[in-house]
Design brief:
The chain is α+β, with helices and mostly antiparallel strands and 286 residues long. The chain has 2 domains: 108 residues, Gcn5-related N-acetyltransferase (GNAT) (Aminopeptidase, 3-Layer(aba) Sandwich), CATH 3.40.630; 139 residues, Aminopeptidase. Strands 1, 2, 3, 4, 5, 6, 7, 12 and 13 form a 9-stranded mixed β-sheet that branches. Strands 8-9-10-11-14 form a 5-stranded antiparallel β-sheet, with helices on both faces. A hairpin with a 4-residue loop joins strand 3 and strand 4. Helix 1 crosses helix 2 and helix 7 packs parallel to helix 8. The two termini are 32 Å apart.
Length: 286
């Protein structure tokens, strides 16, 4: 193929958004799951926000002036996050996805590590990522719903404030051994982050309670995360997040609250990886 990999430009937004919508819709429909981007408008919005973000490295695969696919690399923090990577349905199976992944891995050379989330039912993508050096770290489920519990006495669930950043970053470092401070800072302007607080101490946080794709969070315990999820349910219509299912107590709590397991995903990493110590929710860009 006479294919070129080049940086994404604002003028690529329409093509990238259309491919993101079509590619996710096809794989989801093939396996009987709801698409991550149910409308073209949602996919176009994500493409535009990523392409114009200086902390995100975006690339496209192009042949004869036609965009065949795109990929993105989050570069705000020490651990890089990949995605979404998408290839136009008619161009799949021809090496486009591999070229897009290799390009962001080349870009990430020298970073502490790289992580991604992939749909567990997508056999093509998990084989590609494994062949490029990624290792499976966690089985994950998309969880969605509105818990019926009440926030325990003594816990306050509220919007994250700028003065919470140090405590939230410190909590993240205790759980993961890494900082995601830039992602926290960005969430303050683009998302609706929330914290769970007891006696003036941050016990848990999440960055996007109603948007699982971007919602990462950590907590000192499963009980603290459950309290935060409960409190978020009184603010947003539907709480959604990615739950590593080895956190069995929190998983059972979600099910007992009537929350729904929407689809399976897999957390994969290349490079440095610290086994989390505590309760956590990854984002797709983690």
């Amino acid at each position: 193929m006479n294919m070129q990999i080049r940086p994404a430009r604002p003028s690529d937004t329409g093509a990238c958004g259309s491919i993101i919508h079509a590619a996710f819709a096809r794989i989801a429909d093939d396996h009987g799951f709801p698409p991550d981007f149910p409308t073209l408008e949602a996919a176009l919005g994500l493409a535009e926000s990523f392409i114009t973000n200086s902390k995100i490295f975006g690339i496209v695969a192009e042949m004869d002036g036609k965009v065949l696919g795109s990929n993105f690399l989050m570069e705000g923090d020490a651990i890089r996050g990949v995605g979404p990577i998408t290839v136009a349905p008619e161009a799949q199976g021809a090496g486009v996805g591999r070229a897009l992944m290799q390009a962001v891995l080349d870009r990430a050379q020298g970073s502490a590590g790289v992580r991604l989330l992939q749909d567990s039912f997508n056999m093509r993508s998990i084989a590609l990522y494994a062949s490029l050096g990624f290792e499976v770290r966690e089985p994950v489920l998309v969880i969605s719903g509105r818990p019926g519990a009440t926030v325990p006495a003594g816990i306050t669930v509220r919007a994250m404030r700028a003065e919470d950043l140090d405590a939230c970053d410190a909590l993240c470092q205790r759980v993961h051994g890494i900082s995601r401070r830039q992602e926290l800072v960005d969430s303050m302007t683009t998302l609706t982050p929330m914290v769970g607080e007891r006696d003036g101490r941050i016990k848990a946080y999440m960055t996007a309670p109603d948007f699982w794709i971007a919602n990462h969070g950590v907590a000192e315990s499963a009980e603290d995360m459950a309290a935060l999820i409960t409190g978020a349910g009184s603010v947003v219509e539907v709480v959604s997040f990615l739950l590593p299912t080895r956190q069995a107590d929190l998983f059972r709590w979600c099910l007992a609250q009537g929350m729904t397991a929407v689809k399976p995903m897999t957390l994969m990493s290349a490079g440095s990886y610290n086994e989390p110590v505590g309760t956590y929710l990854p984002s797709v860009f983690y």
